[in-house]
Design brief:
The complex is a heterodimer of chains A (252) and B (398). Chain A is an alpha/beta fold. Helix content of chain A is 38%, strand content 25%. Chain A is built from nine helices and ten strands. In chain A, strand 7, helix 6 and strand 8 form a beta-alpha-beta unit. Classes of the chains: A alpha/beta (252), B mainly alpha (398). Chains A and B meet through helix 2 and helix 3 of A and helix 2 and helix 12 of B.
């Protein structure tokens, strides 16, 4: 990955969000949100339904345009340098969004080509990912025949095909069985060992407690608290992330 | 320049969309099976079934006249092409109406006992023909029987007139001598009506399912969001999808056109009206017009379908647009010919195609029609790109 474009603080900060605001008509979905994520960190974006998590992720992944404020991902501005952002990220949206009529290999090959990977590298990378997510023996089957767990693994493999430094994961284990969820959590942990940055949106407090070094708590489009789990426990005088969450949301 | 425009992202999208569509039964049926099999079969089959050459009508003749006039008419009917005649004698006690009603014969012909006597007395003799107007083969056969009887009647009239010293100029004081500037055979005439209609309609309907699948279908399956997070720009995504759509539509329309040409030639041959062939120049004009027609229909379909949240909703939006394509075709037939008609979308393509097939297309018409076609394509495509960039459209209802 080329870091030549980066300003000095972007060498440390992977995601930098300043005053980010998004209106849908008169409804404010994200309201002057500020936070940052350092390189190699796993940060959890937590909040109840409709809090603005998915909208925030969609802005950071350049799918939506912010109404106000700025956001930089890997040093690229989401509005002015959106292509640079998209080249730096791997995204697992809330819905896996896979093409049912393609096989896993065809799926990964498509996204690899869209990412501009060279043909010689594509098949090796696909083999590596299919092995990693235990999908090799199903590589000739169409995705329509896949279980939810397999689909989620394939969607994650898709996010990783071009080896991006930053991952945005929206509810990565929602609806998965224990084994599949565990495999995905293990993978997320391993990713940060390889220097990847992860912004994780989840409802699963156990998962967030297990994976995230830091938590950004969001409600009604605004950040209500931010810090390590220990810091949030001290702030709320509660034990465990679930109680911290309930405390902060009720306090709103 | 082409290589620069066709970036690796656009090529990847084209390949994927075509691969994906090739596995969708609905798309394959609409784009390949329908034009290749169903269109030619439905164009040819009805006529094949009623054609006198391939399927002659059966005639039962009851000749009660024992003299020569009745026998001569019966002989002429036996010799008439397209009829299979069987004769019956009065002793068989036949009921022709019943025979036709039951479908045993297509036509019944009754020559009464007094037939020769009345002709011989310079009176009008009657021949009774029983047929079923609701049955195509019976009606076609009855037409052939009536034509033979009319010819026979004329030959007797000629004899009567000669006997009275009346010449043919006495009864035909004025005659028409037609002189056509451009000779067009019936097959060519038929092609000039059917082909433009098929090219324009198929350019629209052939790609309709594909256009919906790659826009609203992608939204419904929730695959669009993942695609939007990939490096290609929205314009590149639209370009890739659009080019895949145009390629598939041109393929589909070409298959339909080949099917229709075979159908028209087969039909007109059955009717004894000859066949038609297209010159290289006409074929080139048809190919260019077909491409532009598919391009404008595709861009319009993509623009409209992207507003829908689901495949079904998109069908509700796109299907009525078909009328927009069909209506101008009728306008061309009824409205007075004007050079400005070439500025109207769809009408421009229909006029170019009609005139090219009839061999009357001028360079001005061709250039004007194609130029206006390109302008509409650009407008529709820009609208589609704008819609694709509009998050209110892309995330409508989510």
């Amino acid at each position: 990955m080329n870091f030549n474009h980066l300003e000095e603080n972007a060498l440390i900060i992977a995601i930098d969000v300043q005053g980010l605001t998004k209106f849908f008509g008169r409804v404010v979905a994200v309201d002057h949100v500020n936070f940052s994520v350092q390189r190699g960190e796993i940060v959890g974006l937590l909040g109840p339904n409709g809090a603005g998590k998915t909208t925030t992720l969609r802005i950071l992944t350049t799918v939506l345009r912010p109404t106000e404020g700025t956001a930089k991902v890997n040093g690229y501005d989401v509005l002015k340098e959106s292509r640079g952002v998209r080249e730096s990220i791997g995204v697992l949206p809330e819905d896996a969004g896979l093409y049912d009529r393609l096989t896993p290999r065809e799926t990964l090959r498509y996204y690899a080509r869209l990412s501009g990977m060279k043909n010689v590298d594509i098949e090796n990378k696909i083999d590596e990912l299919l092995d990693m997510f235990e999908l090799k023996d199903r590589e000739k089957d169409r995705v329509s025949a896949f279980s939810k767990g397999m689909r989620q693994k394939l969607a994650l493999a898709r996010a990783l095909i071009h080896d991006p430094p930053i991952l945005f994961l929206d509810e990565p284990t929602a609806g998965l069985d224990v084994i599949s969820a565990r495999a995905i959590r293990q993978f997320i942990t391993k990713s940060t060992e390889k220097g990847k940055t992860v912004l994780l949106s989840t409802h699963n407090m156990v998962e967030a407690q297990q994976l995230c070094g830091r938590i950004v708590m969001i409600n009604k489009g605004r950040i209500v608290a931010e810090g390590t789990i220990g810091e949030l426990e001290t702030l709320t005088k509660e034990r465990g992330l679930e109680d911290v969450f309930v405390h902060l949301i009720r306090a709103e | 320049m082409v290589k620069k425009f066709l970036s690796y992202e656009i090529i990847a999208i084209i390949k994927k969309e075509i691969l994906d569509a090739s596995r969708d039964r609905r798309t394959i049926f609409a784009m390949i099976v329908l034009p290749m099999i169903i269109i030619p079969v439905f164009t040819v089959l009805p006529l094949y079934l009623v054609s006198p050459t391939t399927n002659p009508s059966t005639v039962r003749i009851l000749n009660e006249d024992t003299n020569s006039y009745g026998k001569n008419l019966a002989d002429l009917l036996v010799k008439t092409e397209g009829l299979t005649v069987s004769s019956a004698t009065p002793s068989e006690g036949l009921n022709l109406t019943k025979d036709v009603e039951s479908g045993k014969y297509d036509i019944g012909v009754h020559i009464p006992r007094t037939f020769s006597t009345q002709i011989g007395s310079n009176l009008t003799a009657i021949v009774y023909i029983v047929y079923d107007q609701t049955n195509m083969r019976s009606s076609t056969g009855a037409g052939l029987v009536m034509a033979t009887v009319a010819n026979y009647s004329q030959s007797i009239a000629a004899i009567r007139l000669t006997a009275k010293n009346v010449t043919s100029s006495d009864i035909n004081p004025v005659q028409v001598a037609p002189l056509t500037i451009k000779a067009v055979n019936p097959a060519q005439q038929m092609a000039s009506i059917i082909l433009p209609m098929m090219i324009v309609i198929y350019g629209f309907s052939g790609g309709m399912y594909f256009a919906i699948d790659i826009t609203a279908g992608e939204k419904e399956r929730k695959t669009l969001e993942a695609l939007l997070t990939m490096p290609p720009t929205r314009s590149q995504i639209v370009a890739g999808k659009y080019l895949a759509l145009v390629l598939m539509t041109v393929l589909s329309t070409s298959l339909a056109i080949i099917g229709v040409i075979i159908g028209i030639n087969f039909e007109t041959e059955l009717l004894g009206a000859g066949t038609f062939t297209l010159t290289t120049q006409t074929l080139a004009v048809i190919a260019i017009t077909m491409l532009l027609s598919s391009m404008s229909a595709g861009a319009l379909e993509m623009f409209v379908a992207i507003f829908a949240r689901s495949y079904k909703e998109a069908q509700n939006y796109v299907s009525p647009l078909m009328l927009v394509f069909i209506l101008p075709i009728y306008l061309v037939s009824f409205a007075p010919a004007s050079i400005y008609a070439l500025l109207i979308p769809v009408v421009n393509f229909v006029i170019i195609l009609q005139h090219a097939i009839l061999g009357t297309l001028t360079t001005t018409e061709l250039l004007m029609g194609l130029a206006s076609g390109v302008v509409y394509i650009v407008i529709f495509l820009l609208l589609a790109i704008k819609a694709f960039k509009n998050e209110k459209v892309i995330f409508r209802g989510t």
